[in-house]
Design goal:
heterodimer, A: 418 residues, alpha/beta, Rossmann fold, Ubiquitin-like (UB roll), de novo design (two linked rop proteins), 3 domains, five-stranded mixed β-sheet, four-stranded parallel β-sheet, 16 helices, B: 818 residues, Alpha-Beta Plaits, 5 domains, seven-stranded mixed β-sheet, six-stranded mixed β-barrel, 21 helices, 36 strands, 25% helix, globular
């Protein structure tokens, strides 16, 4: 089993600099400083590393998009992990903060950045303290600050706690929030690589993405690229939750069949119940049916199956579930988290919630199902940012795959009325 | 096709537009309408309402036409099935919780939501849940009421506050379905420009408290008119129903106002129906005060003036007009006094401005293409608010730099790249020093409050500029400093690497027009100087008086000494508005005859023997010339049985033998076009849409001022600077005004050092004393002026600050604890 991020994850006191260094921590810095910054970007490109936050955009390519010769530039680490079902970054921040710092130093060196921010969701207050302590240690040891390890390269990293809004995980809303403004997504273009934080070129990467970089620099791009499938390289942390025996974060080689993750790693279904559905990439992606359980867990295969890898949160549902309730729960989340900027998301999430709630409480009408599908169509790809599409995913996919669940509830209503 | 142009196809029409144009605007150029709510061309793109979705070839998703720049060979389709479905969908979402109280909504009939729904919307709704309920009448300020249910969260208003006003007073609160427009801590949204949010609101959410539930919009008679409150002359629409004033809205004219009006324009028109209006002519010449027909009063006034002129000579009568009159009124009055009464005792002001500039007179819109704006002695925010927005626009969203040279700090300093503050009274010396430095001579800035280094950095800014607009307020320049300033302008004009022009920004409606119309003791219309007898005769006839006349303040002096016997005052209130207030009243009382032709009762009209009613803005037609030299038509709107001012003046002239018949105000305009140099192209037709810039008068005073005279006079006491506030509690905005919340308390701004010397602290109640005038004020210790000076804003008529000023506007004051 290839373990990159979780290799030593349960080692005692890994969060301290001393123990982290024992495991080979910060060794990549010297190797990196011996190279030209652009070489690091080329390495990351060659490794095939893709963004682990949800969109899966090639990481090296993102770095190379920074507006030429415009300084200062900024690095923002997106640690606003708020996607329902996802808790992988949390474990990395909690147990291995120095890995992130090392990754951020490498990224900053590669992109000629001198200021980095770690944007943590407001609820990560405790992790922020851990992070602060780790930063302090790194500064004391000369890994951060002026002239790092005599390389002439300077870097400061600051932490910033959000105020509790899911939308701030969207990169441009994150930038707004970091600048002290209302957490609303920005218009693109300009893209953050051209005009991001304080209108300067900015790299925004997920915690997990940055944590992979030290491995690539230490072991070489080829070694990383050898792991996984042709287009989905490396490993992915998967947060398995729901009706499994051992819900936890697992480091999975991309391309592993979902069946193996559920039945081998997570110990199988609770009470050995029947698998009904699974959401492979966090609440924002369409749910899949039990018969798709052999789909390889990688970007392309999941997309071909009609869903996405997303943030890598595998939510497993057994046969006791009526997916109407699942949709209602998820839409209720999106209604609560919609920033309200664009009309379809602001109004549509609430309307869907109203209808689903009516169906769930046995007051639905037969026409409601088609109406929901039409609302989904009116929302999807018409909202300002992906949050609206995310809200559509559970509803549209649950109707598509499990229409019988809706009909059952609607019939129950008819029976009650008669 | 030029490099900076792009050709694309929209609905099979090929269009070439400038690079950077948004698809929505490109479509507009060929008459294709793409519906919007959140987009507004002055605010830029936001893309939140999603109403403007269009199909673009090679793009998988529908795109928002308001956020998308045109691209070469782009193919846009706005009427496909997909687009129509999306439009219906977005409108269904928008209307989901909108209350549909159109039958009682102020916006009904002119509502983008109604219109878009009618054209693009679904005919029905599938929403069968109870609509959201929210506050129907939340007061945002005393003048704006917010209907929260109607709000569709398009953010136009909040972005206006952020992008245009730039103080983020109005913001979105809460999130998602619960988001709403509001302010921090629920404080009132009471900025100077707040009313514009009513105009740009695409639904009936932000409503004009004054107009709320007053009338249906289609029942209004709308007049395209101008604001008459300051020198900007912003374009606006006056809505009238059954001859009752209803409301005012902005009417965009990029040459003048950039689409906005200030709150004084919107809510400063209650005087149209004020109880204080002069509605009838009256006379006390035959003993007790009695009313008489306007026609008879005009004849009586003319004959009485003529009689005095005949008895005591034409130098014994005079005319004080007003920079608030229209060009027609001003022109006719100077013509009456010169041609029928034979005097040059004609004036309209108490500051030393003269016609003409040594550099071009810039239109306000020239600011947009300048890379340097130099503001001298002007406080646009308080004096000419719309100018403030334009300057902020080019400085924060354009590439222009802002330099400020003033004796008081203003809100402009916040946006300035260089802000120099000279001592009160040192203006002339500073201008002379800068002019000398530019001319390569030594610039003396000793005892002016600014350093040679600062002066040099200002000079560097000027020299590195490609185009500079200089905005100065002649009314704030005391003594002869205006002359020195004009010398400075001519020196600036010599910088060969730069084009430049000036905007003489006196804060009065028609200050430029009054100069142009020759309402001056030493200039005929068009800036023709008395000294040039030939030119005068050629222009105004052989019998034109050539003897130098008296200035307004000289007329007051001569009234006091008994040499001036009769005075006609048109739309002015010298008793309150001239320096020396009380002394003015005493002098006026000594006149044999005081005729006042005014709109509202004033301290001056109370002293008059003959009072003529003036209709003024809102009633009378006429033209005015704004600070940028643009002549525009100010249409009346309300009907009145009283004769318009120009007709009353014409009646007086006819009484004295003038034979000209004027049919409408435009008959006078036509005569102006013929008689006034620079106004030749002005006609009803030529100024109809956007107005027309007149040609500025020739600049006459080319001499270099004596630098010794530029030295500030040494004096005891603190030098007084009276700051002018447009939102003041004056005759126009009386105590019942809707804008009472904008009135400020009487405050005297002191420097820390002076306050320490006087033992004063913030909030102390003091009396500001000069001679026998006393003004009560509260102390504010601020950096508003340099040590040795005080700034006293004029906040009301009752405050009486002009009483403190000397005849040339300069004075020293003492401050005592109350």
């Amino acid at each position: 089993m290839t373990q990159i991020l979780f290799k030593d994850i349960n080692k005692k006191d890994l969060h301290t600099l001393a123990v982290y260094e024992e495991t080979g921590g910060y060794k990549s810095l010297k190797k990196a400083f011996a190279k030209e910054p652009d070489e690091i970007i080329e390495m990351v490109k060659a490794s095939g590393l893709r963004g682990r936050g949800g969109a899966g955009f090639p990481c090296g390519l993102k770095w190379s998009f920074l507006a030429k010769d415009v300084f200062p530039r900024y690095l923002c680490c997106n640690a606003d992990e708020s996607e329902p079902g996802t808790c992988k970054d949390r474990e990395l921040l909690l147990k291995n903060p120095h890995l992130l710092i090392e990754g951020m130093i490498l990224c900053s060196y590669a992109c000629r950045i001198e200021t980095g921010y770690i944007y943590l969701r407001g609820e990560f207050y405790d992790l922020c303290e851990i992070m602060e302590k780790a930063l302090e240690e790194a500064y004391a040891k000369g890994y951060l600050g002026k002239n790092i390890l005599g390389s002439g390269f300077d870097l400061d990293i600051h932490t910033h706690l959000g105020a509790g809004a899911y939308i701030c995980g969207e990169e441009s809303a994150l930038l707004n929030s970091l600048e002290g403004m209302r957490g609303e997504p920005r218009m693109k273009p300009p893209f953050p690589a051209v005009q991001g934080l304080y209108a300067k070129p900015t790299v925004i990467n997920n915690v997990e993405t940055l944590c992979v970089v030290p491995y690539i620099v230490n072991e070489g791009a080829e070694k990383y690229a050898a792991i996984g499938t042709e287009k989905s390289k490396g490993t992915k942390l998967v947060s398995v939750s729901g009706h499994v025996k051992k819900p936890a974060n697992y480091e999975v080689v991309l391309g592993t069949p979902v069946r193996e993750i559920i039945y081998d790693m997570a110990g199988g279904m609770r009470d050995d119940n029947q698998l009904k559905a699974f959401i492979p990439g966090g609440s924002s992606v369409p749910m899949l049916r039990a018969d798709q359980v052999d789909t390889p867990y990688d970007y392309e295969s999941l997309q071909a199956a009609g869903s996405m890898l997303g943030s890598g949160a595998l939510i497993v549902l057994d046969h006791t579930v009526n997916v109407v309730e699942t949709s209602l729960r998820l839409v209720s989340f999106y209604m609560h988290e919609s920033c309200g900027k664009c009309t379809p998301c602001r109004e549509g999430t609430r309307w869907m919630w109203q209808i689903l709630h009516q169906i769930q409480t046995g007051k639905g009408e037969a026409a409601h199902v088609e109406e929901l599908l039409d609302i989904c169509d009116n929302m999807s790809f018409k909202c300002f940012c992906p949050l609206g599409d995310a809200a559509v995913a559970p509803v549209a996919s649950s109707i598509q795959n499990f229409r019988a669940d809706y009909e059952e509830l609607l019939q129950r209503m008819t029976a009650n009325t008669v | 096709m030029a490099d900076n142009e792009v050709t694309l196809t929209i609905d099979d029409q090929t269009i070439t537009v400038p690079k950077g144009t948004k698809v929505v605007d490109a479509a507009k150029t060929v008459g294709i309408e793409i519906p919007v709510f959140c987009y507004h061309e002055k605010l830029g793109s936001l893309g939140c309402c999603r109403m403007c979705l269009v199909e673009v070839e090679k793009m998988p998703k529908l795109m928002t036409a308001c956020t998308m720049d045109v691209g070469p060979d782009m193919v846009v389709k706005t009427t496909t099935e997909r687009v129509e479905k999306a439009q219906k969908g977005v409108l269904e979402f928008t209307l989901l919780n909108h209350p549909l109280d159109c039958p009682v909504c102020d916006k009904g009939g002119e509502c983008p939501l109604q219109n878009n729904t009618f054209k693009y919307g679904p005919g029905d709704t599938r929403m069968d849940f109870q609509r959201a309920n929210n506050l129907k009448a939340a007061p945002l300020s005393p003048v704006i009421t917010l209907d929260r249910e109607r709000c569709i969260a398009c953010q136009r208003c909040t972005r206006y506050s952020e992008v245009i006003e730039q103080d983020r007073a109005l913001v979105m609160l809460n999130r998602g379905f619960h988001n709403e427009v509001g302010t921090f801590n629920n404080e009132p949204y009471d900025t100077r420009f707040s009313g514009n949010v009513i105009d740009i609101c695409p639904v009936g959410a932000l409503t004009n408290t004054q107009f709320r539930f007053k009338a249906r919009t289609w029942d209004l008679t709308n007049s395209d008119t101008l604001c008459a409150h300051c020198g900007c002359n912003c374009n606006m629409t006056l809505g009238v129903r059954t001859n009752k004033f209803m409301r005012i809205e902005s009417r965009p004219n990029d040459y003048v106002d950039d689409g906005w009006i200030c709150d004084k324009a919107r809510w400063g028109y209650d005087f149209l129906e004020s109880k204080n209006r002069i509605m009838e002519a009256r006379t006390t010449l035959d003993g007790a005060s009695k009313t008489l027909p306007v026609k008879d009063a005009a004849a009586q006034a003319a004959n009485a003036l003529k009689k005095i002129a005949d008895e005591h000579g034409p130098g014994s009568i005079g005319f004080i007009g007003s920079p608030y009159g229209t060009n027609e009124e001003l022109y006719l009055y100077q013509k009456l006094f010169r041609q029928q009464l034979g005097t040059n005792n004609i004036d309209h002001k108490v500051y030393a401005e003269t016609p003409g500039l040594p550099i071009p007179h810039y239109d306000v819109s020239e600011i947009e293409t300048s890379d340097l704006v130099l503001v001298i002695a002007s406080d646009p925010t308080e004096e000419l608010p719309i100018l403030d927005l334009r300057i902020k626009k080019v400085v924060t969203r354009g590439n222009a730099k802002l330099a400020v040279l003033n004796d008081q700090s203003t809100l402009m300093d916040r946006y300035a790249h260089l802000s120099l503050r000279y001592d009160i009274g040192a203006a002339a010396q500073v201008f002379a020093a800068l002019a000398n430095t530019l001319a390569g001579e030594k610039g003396e800035v000793q005892d002016t409050g600014i350093t040679g280094e600062q002066l040099n950095s200002l000079m560097d800014m000027l020299k590195s500029s490609k185009k500079t607009t200089i905005i100065y307020n002649p009314a704030a320049l005391t003594g002869q400093s205006v002359d020195v300033l004009k010398h400075l302008l001519s020196e600036i004009g010599k910088i060969s690497s730069m084009e430049c022009g000036a905007i003489p920004a006196a804060p009065y409606t028609n200050a430029v027009g009054a100069l142009d119309m020759g309402v001056l003791p030493n200039y005929y219309p068009g800036g023709v100087p008395l000294a040039d007898a030939e030119a005068v005769k050629q222009q105004s006839g052989e019998n034109s008086p050539l003897e130098a006349g008296l200035s307004a303040m000289e007329m007051i002096e001569k009234a006091n000494s008994g040499e001036l016997k009769a005075l006609l005052v048109h739309r002015a209130n010298p008793v309150v508005d001239f320096p020396g207030s009380k002394k003015i009243a005493d002098a006026l009382k000594k006149l044999d005859l005081l005729i006042v032709h005014d709109m509202l009762e004033t301290e001056t009209s109370q002293l008059a023997g003959i009072v003529l009613p003036s209709n003024g803005p809102g009633h009378d037609d006429g033209t005015t010339t704004n600070i940028g030299g643009r002549v525009q038509f100010r249409k009346g709107g309300l009907k009145t049985t009283n004769a318009p001012d120009w007709k009353i003046i014409s009646m007086m002239a006819k009484t004295l033998g003038d034979e000209t018949d004027y049919i409408t105000s435009f008959s006078v305009t036509d005569e102006i076009a013929k008689m006034v140099p620079g106004y030749g192209d002005i006609s009803k037709k030529s100024i109809k849409k956007m107005g027309l810039a007149r040609t500025a008068a020739q600049y006459q005073n080319g001499t270099k001022p004596d630098s010794a005279k530029s030295q500030p006079a040494k004096s005891d006491g603190l030098k007084l600077r009276i700051a002018s506030y447009l939102f003041a509690h004056d005759k126009i905005l009386d105590a019942d005004s809707r804008l009472a919340h904008q009135f400020k308390p009487s405050t005297v701004h002191l420097h820390e050092d002076d306050a320490k010397k006087l033992g004063l602290k913030n909030g102390d109640d003091v009396i500001v004393v000069s001679g026998d005038t006393q003004v009560r004020a509260e102390v504010e210790i601020s950096g508003k002026c340099n040590p040795g000076g005080v700034v006293l804003p004029r906040i009301s008529d009752e405050q009486g600050v002009l009483g403190l000023a000397g005849a040339d506007g300069i004075s020293s004051v003492e401050i005592r604890k109350a």
